[in-house]
Please model this.
Amino acid sequence: MAEKIGRVPVREQDPKVRAHNYEEVCYGYDEQEAVIEASRCLNCRNPRCVQHCPVGIRIPEFIAQVKAGDFAAAARVIACDNSLPAVCGRVCPQETQCEGSCILGVKGEPVAIGKLERFVADWSREHGGVSVEKEPPNGMKVAVVGSGPSGLACASDLAKLGYEVTIFEVLHKAGGVLQYGIPEFRLPKERVVEPEIDSVRALGVKIETNVVVGRTLTIDDLLEKEGFRAVFIGSGAGLPRFMSIPGESLNGVFSANEYLTRSNLMKAYDPESDTPIFIGKRVAVVGGGNVAMDAARTALRLGSEVTIVYRRTEKELPARAEEVHHAREEGIEFRMLTNPVEVLGDDNGWVRALRCIRMELGEPDESGRRSPVPVPGSEFEIPVDGVIMALGTSPNPLIAGTTKGLETERHGCIVASEDGATSRPGVFAGGDAVTGAATVILAMGAGRRAAKAIDAYLKK
Ligand SMILES: Cc1cc2nc3c(=O)[nH]c(=O)nc-3n(C[C@H](O)[C@H](O)[C@H](O)COP(=O)(O)OP(=O)(O)OC[C@H]3O[C@@H](n4cnc5c(N)ncnc54)[C@H](O)[C@@H]3O)c2cc1C
Ligand code: SF4
Model:
């Protein structure tokens, strides 16, 4: 019986080897493995997996095509709903979305939906890709601010509807966090990210890089002088938070954002690159999300001994389970129920240690998680020469500060309705710029809903 077959394990690089290189950790399925894994799917009549996919991919339909060995047909099914399938197959938190609700997961292991999506996307890219149908041009121009997942998803859907779409991106490369945040060993840039961005370009979307919206030109300029009929803001949440503890301005303290941007976007990990990057002997990474895991695993590969310092327990770690597992396998040390109170420096102004306090879990807070409470008198020092803060990010205030009538809330997030409409007519927003730091697929879902709303707004 199909459901008796166990989940096909995915091949990965040996942890001892990969801890010293930047090659992708996971090899993915080959054709035979993909067909076997696809044969586990029950093709449910009311598929719970689809209900829990933020972009509504027709999962049983594409898996049925994989099972039949028609990988091109599977790619066509996915392409209807997802313009970045090779990215999502690699980085989506499937365990809390599609796979987390797969019926097979009730008594056993869910279908490996993410790994199958990745297989289909990679196969399709290597075999010429999918040609997507487009409506004829309707003569209307729409601007998109930011080329991250929300901007790319919104731009793709609008281009398919016949709009002339231009994305304005402040950095010199498109992709947002996919390009500057998530490391090469999880998401290869030239092999995966850039071809998926090229497929958005192939729909006719123009991407203008090195344009700071709010400085080079404003949203008002786009609407009033440049002939754009609507604007989608997908500018993300790139402003790092710090702890406001003594010693945070010492040499050797970094935000994870800066550290990862140097390594990923500016290729500091490559010995041929001129970009400087700090390589500590012992580095502490503060935080427990995907950003913390990425910073820690990057520091490890650059040659540091790495400790993750997190104030709650393993159970509350917000990072994907797979990333935590990989980090442990590679030799990252975890110090749970530990919170920094001061960064200590030497006579030359460089970090020499992180002073921490032990924590215990108290009553649940408003997020439902038990809040960490300091244990009095339990302070201790961790000797380190580098500290990377991975404590979350907020939206940069530049766009809100230079756009008339654009309402924001107290953390600087743009106020927008479910379909992305903001307080300013003709201006829509979505992704991390609205929700604060979230996930690739939620940002893509927001971009797609906004594209639909922009179409309705312009056709009214
Ligand atoms: C290190 C790291 C690891 C992550 N790992 C995962 C993961 O494993 N799985 C997952 O689902 N999510 C992960 N995330 C979160 C995910 O990447 C984000 O939620 C997602 O990228 C948000 O998409 P976005 O389009 O809203 O914004 P972004 O991806 O941030 O893109 C915004 C773009 O707008 C540009 N921009 C900003 N301001 C301006 C301006 N004024 N003018 C022009 N352009 C501008 C930025 O340069 C950027 O390119 C991770 C995030 C980080 C930082
Ligand atoms: S819930 Fe699981 S078994 Fe059912 S269609 Fe989705 S992937 Fe297949």
Q: What stands out?
A: The chain has three domains: 15-126, 141-238+394-459, 242-391. The radius of gyration is 23 Å.
